[in-house]
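This is your field. Have a critical look at both lines of this record:
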Amino acid sequence: MATTMTTTMMLMLLALSSHLLSVSAEEPKAAVSVEEGLGIDVTAAPPSGDGGDAVIEEEGEDGNMIALVGQKDNPCVGKKPLHGPEEGDEYFKNVQCIEAGVKQALEQAGANVTKGYNGEFDAGDRVPIVTSYKEAGLCPVNVHWHLGAEHLSVGQFDENGTGPTTTRRRRRSRSMLAYDDEKVRLGFQCNYYNATDEKFTKPFDWKHCEGMQVGQTYEVHWPHSAAGMCGTEWQMQTPFYDGVFCKSGIISLDPLNTFQKIGVQAQVYTIVNDETYYNDNLLNGWIEYPDMDVAKYTGSTTGTTRSNEICSRFTPITWQVDRKCHMVSASSIDKLCEDMKAQKADMSDDLHAHGARELVADQFAADNHQRLH
C-alpha cells in the first residue's frame, strides 16, 4: 500500500478543500444551510413543503425525488450538501470520473473485497476506521439495501451466484432485473440458492417491506456518522445523507476527517423462509457472527447513479464489509421494515431494494484495504 500521495492526488485533495472552504458567508436565500452539518459554508437543496402532515420532497438514494411526510420538526431534513461556493453550482452532484485523463473524484465504492485484493487508487495517508464504529464514536443513522451485492467477494457473492432470477454475466456488466415496474440493476448473488429446497422458494407474506423476494440476495448498508442525532428519536433518517450530516462542528474538510467520522457497515444476505435464521434487531447494525472476516477500506457513496464513468463526490468515507454471505429469514427483514416504519423520521423510501452500482474498477478502488479480525 502506498504511504504517500501522488502529486496529482494531493493537488486534487487540496483543490477540493480550497473549493469548499472558499464559500461566501452570505447564503442564497432560496437554499437551506447545512453549515451545521459540515462545519463549512455549503448549501443543501431546499426541501419543498412545510412539514407537519404536508409533504416535503428531497432527492432519494436512487436520484429520484421522494416524499417525506410529517417532518416539520425533523432537525435533519435538508442537511445533504448540494451546492459549493457559487449559488446553484451543484458541486456535490456526481461528476465524470475522468476528464482529459485526470481523475475528478477520490476513491470510490463498492469495490472488490476478496481477501488479498487491493485497489490501484493511491489513498495516500488515508486509513479507514479499524475499530468498531461504536468505539470510534459513530452511530447508525440509516439502514437500506441493494438488489444483489454491490461488493464482490469471490466464492461468496460473485458472478457465479444464483437466485430466483439468475443472471450469469461478466463482473462489470449492466444486466438489469425488472422490479416493481422499474428497471433496478441486479448486483452479484450468493451461492446458497437451491430451487429444490423450499426455504429458498416458499413465498413469504410480506407485511411491511416492499418488493422483496425469498431466495434473492441483498446487500444491506448501515451508514454511521459521528454527526448523527445519536441516542435521540431523530437518529435514523431517510435519505441517509440527512442523518450523516445532521449535527454541527464534527465533520470537517480542513483538516479532512470524513473517513474518520463517516462509515458504512455492509453485510450480504440470501433471504430464506426459515425461522432458524431469525434475528429480531437489524435496525441498529449488522449481525455479529463468530470469526467474521471484515474488509475495511475508504471509498464513496454507491447506488446506480454512479458507475465507472460517473463518480460520487461524497468521498472518502470508511467501508467495513463482511466478506461472507449469510442466510437470514424473511421475517427478520420484515421486522426490520416494521421497525423502520416506527421511526420518527419518514423512512418509507428505504422499505424496498435499491439498484446495485456496478463493481468499481481497480483504478478507482483505494489501495488501503485492511482486515478487521
